[in-house]
Amino acid sequence: LLRLAGFAVDRARGKASLARLVREGLGTRAAPAAILLALYHLDLEPDLPLAGDLLVAGITREPENALLHWAGSVLAWRNAGLAQAVVMTEKALWCCGEDLSGTAPYLQYQLGTLKLISMQWSASYDALRRVHDGLRAERVFFPYSTAVTVQLAAVCFCTDREQEGLRLCHEVDQAQERRQDWIPALRIEGDCARLL
Fold first, then answer.
1. Given Cys at both, which of 7, 12, 34, 89 links 2, Cβ 3.0 to 4.6 Å?
2. 152-159 contacts: CB < 8 A, separation 24 or more?
3. CA distance 165 to 159
4. Cα–Cα distance list, 195 to 128, 137, 161, 170 (Å)
5. Gap between the Cα atoms of 53 and 111, Å rounded
6. Whose CA is closest to 179, among 166, 193, 164, 168?
7. What is the Cα 143 distance to its own chain's centre?
8. pLDDT tens-digit readout, 88-137
């Protein structure tokens, strides 16, 4: 997109600029630079030790930065450190403060998903229920709301809440019928609905 807009992209120069921001700890730009560079080294040019070092340095500098802890949870999750990913996501929620932590849908969703994967059904139910209810009560952009409902239904079936699980399945079915009238479902949304 940047190239289409007329920007010249110089990957080496961009990485060097981000590294300088991180290394010198230049104000408010240091944390986003550490996150971008760590995610770059997680996906595009894999160097996991460097990605981890960047995030550790950022967290050391800003121990209450929720975004740094979130990025650390992504790094841990991608490297099969499920327990560490849960801890980092919980720490990110803690960093949000009491007022925001209960209504941070993306972090709550990640926590619910991590707990689901690790078969901690009650904790997964609590987090996914908060996200589900929050998405229904507030106008929050969340592209995979059907996935939340499907995951919550799955957790319900694992925690002896069959009736609630069936209601959630019905909710997904109704949402898919409404959505077909005005917008095509995202692929993951449609796949989740077909599973039910």
1. 7
2. 152/112, 152/125, 152/128, 153/196, 154/116, 155/112, 155/116, 155/121, 155/124, 155/125, 155/128, 156/125, 158/119, 158/121, 159/121, 159/122, 159/125
3. 10
4. 18, 26, 19, 12
5. 23
6. 193
7. 12
8. 999 999 999 988 877 789 999 999 999 999 999 999 999 999 999 988 88
Q: Which residue has the tokens 């960093």?
A: 95
Alpha-carbon span 116 to 133, nearest angstrom = 18
**Phi, psi values for residue 141, rounded to 5°:** -75, 120
Question: In the numeric block, which tokens belong to residue 30?
Answer: 């240091």
pLDDT, the chain, mean: 85
Mean pLDDT, range 47-52, rounded to an integer:
92
Burial (Cβ within 10 Å: 0-12, 13-18, ≥19) of residue 101: middle
Contacts 24+ apart (CB under 8 A), 159-163: 159/121, 159/122, 159/125, 161/125
Tokens of 192: 């989740």
Q: Which two tokens stand for residue 77?
A: 């999750």
Residue type, 120: Q
Please state, in angstroms and rounded to a whole number, the distance separating the CA atoms of residues 90 and 166: 29
DSSP 8-state assignment for residue 29 = G
Token pair belonging to 152: 């919550």
